[in-house]
Design a protein that fits this description.
3% strand; 63% helix; mainly alpha
Amino acid sequence: MPGTGRCNLNHLHISQKDKGNSLIQSGFYSMLLTVPPILVALTIHEFSHGYAAYRLGDPTAKSMGRLTLNPLAHLDLIGTIALLLVHFGWAKPVPVNPNYFQNPRKDLMWTALAGPGANFLLAITLGLLYKFSGVDDLVTKHLDIQPVLIASFIFEFTIYINILLGVFNLIPIPPLDGSNILAGLLPPHLANSYASLSRYGIFLLLAFIAFGRGILQPIMSLFLSLYKFLVTANFHLF
């Protein structure tokens, strides 16, 4: 089963040209402004898992009403609250039945890859829209205007959270998507041995969240640098 849509916001660094009396400077309003981007990222992530599984022959997600872009179908209440309050959260995992797949190991890998892949694709699409629509120039010239600053924050945070969600879920620790991707790439005998780690997955994941910042932060910085190189827009959030 693909990992749930999980992400960690502890690596977010925000810098605006004018922080003077910014509404975003308030922790409460900043939290509210992150809600729509988080909903978009989690929904796209989970929908893509379900859609990939459906295209590969598994109707489970569709039959359970999860093949939808309605955020309410994918949100886990506790996971969403945790994401806002403690900067780590999750969505409900899309149900997948590998028995429907012609090649269960490979098809499960593609299903798992669909979630992070969709997040990266959305981030690239929004980045190009941000650049070629002229929004980045508008923001650069009028970043001291409150509505422009808020719009910029929401737009860029949507890009950021999609990259973060994609990167985090590529970590090969069960139950994250990266574990199913790695299992699909390994030879069968090694994949079976690797699968035995799933019983300890939650403990390994918690340990990584607690002590793995030194690993995740440079990886995230590398992805952001590559992203900005590809899109070449003037981002102010990261």
